[in-house]
Design a protein that fits this description.
Order of helices and strands: EHEHEHEHHEHEEHEEEHEEHEEHH
Strand order of the largest sheet: 3-2-1-4-5-6-11
Distance between the termini: 45 Å
CATH superfamily of the largest domain: NAD(P)-binding Rossmann-like Domain
Largest sheet: 7 strands, parallel
Helix content: 40-55%
Structural class: alpha/beta
Oligomer: single chain
Strand content: 15-25%
Number of domains: 2
Radius of gyration: 20 Å
CATH class of the largest domain: Alpha Beta
Length: 319
């Protein structure tokens, strides 16, 4: 049997890197697209897969680049994790953010239609499309995107649905709620908290400045989520899915758990500053895990305490 091939857009971010590793373990030939000219792929180095992923350079917003890649490799599976993924940065760079999400999505879809692509396509969606959630969000939950990043993801979701229903492409969107791993960029608040708490352990006078501590999120474990992503991508049930834990944790609770695990009192070190509040911040965001479990028998197993424990352990090992 011929070796299967997977093409990963956004192959060097947290999710792209993790899915590269997972696919390599399944004996896929893995091709990743990267935009930068830098030879190093830090996340691939960390995961020990730098020599195993075939890297092509190019930009997902360029139609010809996308067409050449899909035509050249004829992949069995395509995963799109490429985008400017910081909500904060999306306010500062809305054009770049929307371009990376919407243009990237439509390029992949149009090329696939043009080439009569018959493989499976996955697009990374975001819980940001729902805005504030009063109850656990499923596909039927109202959508109130509150930032440029969320608007881009909402448009991408709708485009994928159109191409699936009208052009019969095997394409789905996984609406991912917050998910963490040691590969997360330091700009993410969870990494700021973990790094800050460890800094406080070494310097008892250190103060960690954060924004609104009362926001609450549905945090999951990224390596687990990329397994769910593959299950829904390969399923005969071509349906968008919400990938989440269904558990809600306030930022204050996340901080408390982190500092307690390091035998510290968080109130001695953490300061909430109004100047760090976002102009438009979602108060509460959590999803409904039941449809994914019912449809595909997948659910998240890593709880928040274990997740934080693994993040701390990884950070301490690095230090």
């Amino acid at each position: 049997m011929a070796q299967k091939t997977a093409l990963i857009f956004g192959s060097q971010g947290q999710d792209g890197s993790l899915i590269c590793k997972s696919l390599l373990k399944q004996d896929f030939e893995v091709i990743g697209l990267k935009r930068s000219k830098a030879c190093m792929s830090p996340n691939h180095e960390i995961l020990g897969i730098a020599k195993d992923v075939k890297i092509e350079q190019g930009d997902i917003t360029d139609f010809n680049t996308v067409q050449k890649l899909i035509d050249k490799y004829q992949p069995n599976e395509i995963y799109n994790f490429a985008a400017q993924s910081s909500v904060g940065k999306s306010f500062a760079n809305p054009i770049e953010t929307l371009d990376s999400i919407i243009q990237g999505t439509i390029n992949i879809l149009e090329v696939s239609k043009k080439l009569n692509y018959t493989g499976h396509l996955f697009f990374a969606g975001s819980s940001e499309i729902f805005g504030h959630t009063i109850k656990k969000a499923d596909l039927g939950h109202s959508q109130k995107p509150a930032n440029p990043y969320a608007i881009g993801k909402q448009a991408s979701l709708n485009l994928v649905k159109i191409y699936r229903e009208i052009h019969n492409l095997k394409c789905v969107t996984g609406i991912l709620f917050n998910h963490e791993s040691p590969l997360r960029n330091e700009t993410f608040v969870t990494q700021k908290i973990i790094s800050g708490a460890i800094h406080c352990l070494k310097n008892r006078n250190h103060k960690l400045e954060l924004g609104n501590l009362n926001i609450a999120r549905d945090w999951g474990w990224a390596p687990e989520y990329v397994e769910g992503v593959q299950i829904m991508t390969r399923s005969k049930l071509l349906k968008d899915q919400v990938i989440c834990t269904g558990e809600l944790t306030t930022l204050k609770k996340f901080i408390e758990i982190t500092f307690t695990k390091l035998n510290l009192n968080w109130e001695d070190h953490v300061q909430s500053k109004k100047t760090l509040y976002r102009a438009s911040d979602i108060e509460k965001s959590y999803g409904d895990p039941i449809p994914m479990h019912k449809d595909l028998n997948w659910k998240a197993n890593v709880k928040i305490e274990e997740l934080i424990e693994m993040l701390i352990s990884s950070k301490l090992k690095k230090l």
